[in-house]
Design goal:
Number of domains: 3
Bound molecules: protoporphyrin IX containing FE
CATH class of the largest domain: Mainly Beta
CATH architecture of the largest domain: Beta Barrel
Number of strands: 10
Largest sheet: 10 strands, antiparallel
Shape: globular
Radius of gyration: 26 Å
Number of helices: 15
Distance between the termini: 77 Å
Helix content: 25-40%
Oligomer: single chain
Length: about 500
């Protein structure tokens, strides 16, 4: 007998031979009674689970959030009280590429953080940009279909991307960011992270305010050019995952400074635009960053599938002191993630160790596929019950929220305060000359295969955001400035009409 650890089958019985199938005679066929072989093959056929519909390619790490400043006047969340140190798991991702896609693509980067707090898990599921393409949940599936593979060719399509992005003018700010020098971060460690949506806080007096979450990299911002990224993708498609893993292994732990922006309910009522529209930002000059703490990543997962692939986040997971907002996009996400994970991982996905809360869970949910714990044993299965177990906790009730207006399908473009180009224009004016040049070059390169009608639509948007932006893009794309100026005078419906495929 050798000294190696013993091979067993799936129920622990010793396996005698892992190399030679049982055959009828030395040169004969395999027999059914090689049950170890059948078990191996059957398991292998079931090893692939559905990939995330978007954000399929990702990397994860564990770490901590340490609270260094006092924001108890805004929130009673224990995870955010001074001195609190909370364990967390982060998954970084690209959005459009599939599970095997290269890391260094021009795309936004997802950042999903699971805080294992003493009041249950809080998931903050954000990106590396402070804003988003779209704002109505109806458009989410379409956005992903536009950036993913074309149903006819099976290939990614710049034409589809730009057609969709330019028909919805609210995409403009995010498109400007994605085409800018920040469109390909050099590392997950060298980018800022944002919660993006407006969320709410409430304090011990049950007073509500609105908030946005920011995590600014302490490593400094660093990006790749198109040329650098193309070279790296050709050599190492897992570059960003390797970079994060290696940094943690050499104890060069990446850190981010956590801050919040706060808006009172009164300020929100008087804000110059809809503060709950994810395509808008809150200016730092009006709502300055308030420092909260430090997020550090300091431990690599042991097993990629168990911990990274099976990690499941949802913005619906909040803890007392942190709440949602009327942001219609956030509201849509509250349904979507849990539903996706029940499909991808099964109804008991929160029993998977990486997803499991560190505190006792008492939710009455019973049974279901892969219920692998004790299933609450003999405890009552219904509530209310006379045993008085697991009663609701009214002391964590959120303050009521006043709403006004009739139920209706409101188009934000009908809101007179709505301006889809203001933020993109302001960003252009903030850019140094070299950044402007890179933005124009990247946009022209990205649109190289796109039809002229769509280029004109984008040029008109650039012009509406800032004349300089419009003129520079128009010239670089070889378009007529007179035509762009004329298009920019049309209303949204007119511009779309004038730039339909038939008008090219
Ligand atoms: C209505 C809008 C949205 C819907 C319906 C939606 C839906 C989804 C779904 C279904 C997944 C895959 C979940 C899974 O299979 O585990 C996902 C992943 C993700 N989404 Fe969204 N999403 C929306 C908007 C956003 C926004 C605005 C952000 C950023 C602020 C965001 C960030 C992410 C991230 C980071 C992931 C990857 C999570 C992970 O690493 O497991 N999504 N989204």
């Amino acid at each position: 007998m050798n000294e190696f650890k013993k091979l067993t089958n799936e129920v622990g019985a010793p396996v005698a031979d892992n190399d030679n199938a049982i055959t009828a005679g030395p040169r004969g066929p395999v027999v059914m009674q090689d049950v170890w072989l059948m078990e191996k093959m059957a398991h292998f056929n079931r090893e692939v689970i559905p990939e995330r519909r978007m954000h399929a390619k990702g990397w994860g790490a564990y770490g901590t959030l340490t609270i260094t400043h006092d924001i108890s006047r805004f929130t009673k969340a224990k995870v955010l009280q001074p001195g609190a140190v909370t364990e967390l798991f982060v998954r970084f991702s690209t959005v459009a590429g599939e599970r095997g896609a290269a890391d260094c693509e021009r795309d936004i980067r997802g950042v999903a953080i699971k805080f294992y707090t003493e009041e249950g898990n809080w998931d903050l599921v954000g990106n590396n940009t402070p804003t988003f393409f779209i704002r109505d949940v109806h458009h989410f599936a379409d956005l992903n279909r536009a950036v993913k593979r074309d149903p006819h060719t099976g290939r990614r399509s710049a034409q589809n991307n730009w057609d969709f992005w330019t028909i919805l003018p609210e995409c403009f700010h995010q498109v400007t960011i994605v085409m800018s020098d920040r469109g390909i971060p050099a590392s997950f460690r060298t980018m800022h992270l944002f919660g993006e949506h407006t969320f709410s806080f409430y304090n011990v007096k049950n007073e509500r305010c609105w908030c946005k979450f920011h995590f600014r990299t302490q490593q400094g911002i660093k990006n790749f050019t198109n040329e650098e990224a193309a070279k790296i993708n050709g050599m190492d498609r897992e570059y960003m995952g390797r970079d994060l893993y290696d940094a943690i292994e050499r104890k060069d732990f990446p850190k981010w400074t956590m801050s919040v922006q706060i808006m009172t309910e009164e300020q929100a009522k008087k804000h110059h635009e809809n503060p709950f529209d994810i395509t808008k930002i809150w200016r730092h000059s009006e709502y300055p960053l308030i420092e909260v703490g430090v997020l550090e990543l300091n431990r690599n997962p042991e097993n990629y599938f168990a911990e990274v692939e099976q990690a499941a986040f949802t913005p619906a997971h909040v803890v007392p002191g942190i709440g949602f907002s009327p942001d219609r996009f956030l509201q849509g996400r509250l349904f979507s993630y849990g539903d996706a994970q029940r499909y991808r991982l099964g109804v008991n996905y929160n029993l998977i160790p990486v997803n499991r809360a560190k505190v006792e869970v008492s939710d009455y949910h019973r049974d279901g596929a892969m219920r692998v714990d004790g299933n609450y044993g003999a405890a009552p299965a219904y509530a209310p019950n006379s045993d008085g177990v697991w009663t609701a906790q009214p002391d964590v009730m959120e303050p009521p929220l006043d709403l006004d207006g009739a139920m209706y399908r409101y188009d934000p473009k009908d809101d007179p305060t709505d301006d889809c180009f203001r933020a993109g224009g302001a960003l252009w004016r903030l850019m140094a000359e070299a950044q402007k040049q890179v933005l124009i070059e990247n946009t022209v390169a990205d649109m190289a295969s796109v039809t002229e009608n769509i280029k004109y639509r984008h040029a008109a948007h650039c012009y509406l955001a800032d004349r300089g932006y419009g003129e520079r893009f128009t010239k670089a794309a070889g378009l007529s400035l007179n035509k762009v100026k004329a298009l920019s005078k049309l209303n949204h419906a007119g511009l779309v009409q004038a730039t339909l495929a038939s008008s090219k």
